[in-house]
Amino acid sequence: MSLENFFNPKSIAVIGATSDKNKVGYAFMSNLLQKNSGSENVANRKIYPVTLNEESVLGLPVFNSVLDIPDEIDLAIIAVRAQIVPKILTDCGQKNIKNVIVISSGFKETGFEGAELESQIGEIAKKYNIALLGPNCLGVISAKDDLNASFAGRKPLPGKIAFLSQSGALGTALVDWSFQEGVGFSKIVSLGNEAQLTETDFLEYLENDSDTSAILMYLETLNDGPRFMEVLSRVTTKKPVVIIKAGMGTHGNLAALSHTGALAPQSDVFIAACKQAGAVTVSSVRGFFNVVKVLSQTTQTATPIQRVIVLTNGGGPSVIAADLIDRSKSLSLVTLSNDTKEALREVLPPMAAIGNPIDVMGDALADRYEKSLQILSEAEDTDAILVILTPQMMTETKKTADVLLKFKDKINIFPVFIGGEFMEDGRKELIKSGLSCFDFPRDVVESLDYLAKNAPKNKSPLHRSKDFKRQDGEMMDFVCMKNLLSEYDIFISGKFLTKKEDLENTLQELGEGSYAMKAISKQAVHKTESGAVRLNIANLEEANRVWEEFWTTIPAVEGVLIQKMEKKGREVIIGMKKDNTFGSAIIFGLGGIFTEAIKDTTIRVAPFGKEEALKMMKDIKGIKILQDFRGEPPVNFEMLSQIIVNLSRLALEHPEIKEIDLNPVMATENSATIIDARVMI
Amino acid sequence: MSLENFFNPKSIAVIGATSDKNKVGYAFMSNLLQKNSGSENVANRKIYPVTLNEESVLGLPVFNSVLDIPDEIDLAIIAVRAQIVPKILTDCGQKNIKNVIVISSGFKETGFEGAELESQIGEIAKKYNIALLGPNCLGVISAKDDLNASFAGRKPLPGKIAFLSQSGALGTALVDWSFQEGVGFSKIVSLGNEAQLTETDFLEYLENDSDTSAILMYLETLNDGPRFMEVLSRVTTKKPVVIIKAGMGTHGNLAALSHTGALAPQSDVFIAACKQAGAVTVSSVRGFFNVVKVLSQTTQTATPIQRVIVLTNGGGPSVIAADLIDRSKSLSLVTLSNDTKEALREVLPPMAAIGNPIDVMGDALADRYEKSLQILSEAEDTDAILVILTPQMMTETKKTADVLLKFKDKINIFPVFIGGEFMEDGRKELIKSGLSCFDFPRDVVESLDYLAKNAPKNKSPLHRSKDFKRQDGEMMDFVCMKNLLSEYDIFISGKFLTKKEDLENTLQELGEGSYAMKAISKQAVHKTESGAVRLNIANLEEANRVWEEFWTTIPAVEGVLIQKMEKKGREVIIGMKKDNTFGSAIIFGLGGIFTEAIKDTTIRVAPFGKEEALKMMKDIKGIKILQDFRGEPPVNFEMLSQIIVNLSRLALEHPEIKEIDLNPVMATENSATIIDARVMI
């Protein structure tokens, strides 16, 4: 199935074409006929209006059905009422049209009947091997091919950023906004209901699209999490992918829940999955739009911008910018060399600050910016210069803009013109000539931080796993669980006994020390609270007594787990939770009191290898606790990572399992002892 | 000293007035003469140019010295080179001018000589009882009095927000920006170097300024932290104060430092102090400007806006807005009543979403917004409506703006028009008629969150404390410290012994159990690491042995602290650190492993009462640990708060103390036991 003809078709049929300016069918016709580019492809592109109601549309003769068109059709656009879409789509199939956009709404977004209709058109597309975009979408725009197959009133400026959107509103808003910011797009796809083609199909198409150097996605749902991750992690090694997802809020309540399920709400898994696959995730529209501006003017997107110089004519805003950079974990202020400082000293007035930020002073004309940039654009270890201009009495807004434009091909320049009308000339000058203009320092710093945080890196290969839809479940029997885990070299500490007579031998086997005894019963899930855990048992006599007590006080005892008590170690949690979208999410975190007080966990989507497991553990906030700590050597990260990897394998090979808790796991320099575990099927 | 004449003088002398349009002296003259208001005061205001070089300036006759002016002068503005400012200021004093603005730069911002000159003019002002603003400032603007005593080219729109700025650049940028946003100001003061009058003086003045309903401050330094807090906490009960402070970044490194000093870097104390006094602190210029927009259109500023409805014509952005609200701790989405929903159902098309967010659909004309707002503006428990408009094919931008304006006096309406040129008409329409227009949902949500987080509340009275400048210091002797602390009812657990013979009696006194022994020595500050702490001592025999070991292995032992070991309890830290600006900062936090892994602390500036101490403890992230936890009852917050209050009193009465650590304090249901303490003088 080729998507190429969505963007560069030689012939297009518009079904539902009309001369009525208030209708979508008119907007499409009119947009398709507006061709600016002189390329042969574009000039020869044929547009065929199809309708029953009119004789000609925009001067073109009309056909009653696609079947009547004497030409081959590369792309059909359907904008008729939902009820007759199946009929029209069948016509397209019979005409052997392989790419179809259904604009019409009235499908699954309207309820049960619409959903029926939608699955119907999905079936028809499948039958005729049609690549179907929509329904309920706004269409497609391609800059290079000068194609506006959408009802956006005005085609966006050409550029190198592609945008895939599940929200029509955000798409039109972004396009409208892009004009005033001088931001251009390579391709825009409004995904609609995704009856067939999904965000992942177009993402994959854009992977090798040479016109696209960065990809934006607005997502509300994902159809196939594992495939999305697989494709995404491939694409992000080639070009940055920036994702904004709606529906990330959590009403989640951590109260008293220390099990894996509560520690990995779905939105957290989504963000973890995107990051793991190397994408940049953004949480606000403003953040998203700002990242677009930064990407649109960044010359090389392969290595992220991290080392920044701030150049300003006003102290206040530059101090704030420096603060923001300082607080970002991924950015840094360049420390200027003495040579650079001396050179600056020579061209700037004696009162100018020549550290970083460099303050050329409130009375600076454009020439001071120019002299400084001549020096700074050559500075070592510098990725970008953030240039702040505030409106002072002598400020030359437009001239300063012209200076910045001179340097834009030498180094990444991010102009921040703070103010209003006074700055307007300069702002327009920049945008006209291909530099974005930012309003406030945060707009740049936050965007650079987003991009740098997720610099592409080597990623573990991802396999697909399906059939993991979650249902309500029950706790796995202890013995089954113990056996299942041990198949994957995950061993629960201690011995499980069902006969009191075995106590003596077992204590001997475990060796001298004190012991813990745990009654295993489905009716005592919270062992501590229900009295099913006894600690500090010193000898056989005490053990026998506890055994008796268990059998008399705990309902439905199946047996007793006896463990040697660990004197030392730091508690961690390792867990797995099935996520409806991504499959197995593996959770690692500090255990015990830390889990309950603050949610200090990190998430990865399975499967992944040891290297990723090691990285994952380093992500927790309290990592210090597991490293050299109070005279204790670091815990054995190797052994922990082996458990994590084994657990991730287990989860994939047992799709019926919904949740696994290994909690607590006591970690020391040379051991990782699993004290307790739970598995939910 | 009255500040009134800075804003509404009847007569003004401009020293350094000139006809040279490139000079500041011209800008002032020209701005002062531009009077739009017809009020009698303004019309009769006299302007006297003073210069040696010209015969008339802007048609006004010139005086050679203020002493030559035959009229009384309420305000003098000095814009001559720094070196002759002392002479001119002396003239002003002799002329009995009580309010002077020194615009000239070349003072302490330039180094040692300038600082000399600055202290000289401070002395002169003092001698003649002059209220002096500046030097190195941009002047003053007052809307009501139609006074532009600044070199801002254009007077801001009149409004109800006052702005005090230590940054000239930010001030001019804010004014320039305010025109395009339709935001007005009551008074603007550029504070300059603050040779005499400070931010606090003007804050105090604005407290009772009936034209000002909200105050903005840009701060870089504070001269007198305690007085600032005292005034600020009074003002914030009357009107919101929003503060942006530059220089908040911290290169702070938590590595291995668990003592109070490391837990309270100066910037954290600043923020804590502002919040404690009821102010809103903002960290980015964009955040600051957005708060200004929100404040400028909020009708009542006394109670914060918290309960929000989102109304939209596009799903994507509204979901993101709802997410942002959801994640804010201080805001909430209104749950619409069934009546409201039914009413909406009747006026909106069947496919419209009538939950909150309410989606009037992409094809909505202005009338759907109007019908919805008629219902929603009457909705219960609602503080504000965030109205999102995205550019769709049929969208009526300007008409929708007119609809919003109809409701602006009924309820707080925050329009968010996402897009560019298409939205421009609507945006202009709103701003023209007194509504701000926001670009993105976050701009509103973040601002409301800032404002709601610090809703005014009852605050403890604040006293002044001075003379606490910090120097390098040394550790207080253990015995002195124990005595000092006990004067304030802060008792270190256990007995301090210097004679081995006392061991036996002491163990009896402490009662049965196991004991801890700690060798007290100035040469063993890190007790655990230097072997000066021994735990789990069972009896007298062992205690004697440890005693001997201490005396042979630890250098300079002064005595031994013997404590009964606490079986239970949760570790907390209580500490105090002197801050150069605010005096005593009191720190509370979870102790032990929590301090080291994550910095879970909260800060208040002393002194404060028990109520504030109780609130303070609730601010830590891991508060759960101290409440009902794993079957343990809550710790005794009463006792902890008593220690906190006592410590804050001690700190105030002993300005020579720089740092106090009570660490750890073991807290249980009915005790708060101080296990160890340190005091730095």
Account of the 3D structure:
- Two copies of one chain form a homodimer.
- With 681 residues, chain A is α/β, with parallel strands linked by helices.
- Chain A folds into five domains: 138 residues, NAD(P)-binding Rossmann-like Domain (Rossmann fold), CATH 3.40.50.720; 144 residues, Rossmann fold, CATH 3.40.50; 150 residues, Succinyl-CoA synthetase domains (Rossmann fold, 3-Layer(aba) Sandwich), CATH 3.40.50.261; 73 residues, Dna Ligase, domain 1, CATH 3.30.1490.20; 111 residues, D-amino Acid Aminotransferase, Chain A, domain 1 (2-Layer Sandwich).
- Helix content of chain A is 35%, strand content 21%.
- The first copy, chain A, has 24 helices and 29 strands.
- In chain A, the strands form six sheets. A seven-stranded mixed sheet of chain A has the order 9-8-11-10-12-13-14, sandwiched between helices. In chain A, strands 24, 25, 26, 27, 28 and 29 form a six-stranded antiparallel sheet that branches. In chain A, strands 2-1-5-6-7 form a five-stranded parallel sheet, sandwiched between helices.
- In chain A, helix 14 packs parallel to helix 15.
- The longest helix of chain A has 17 residues.
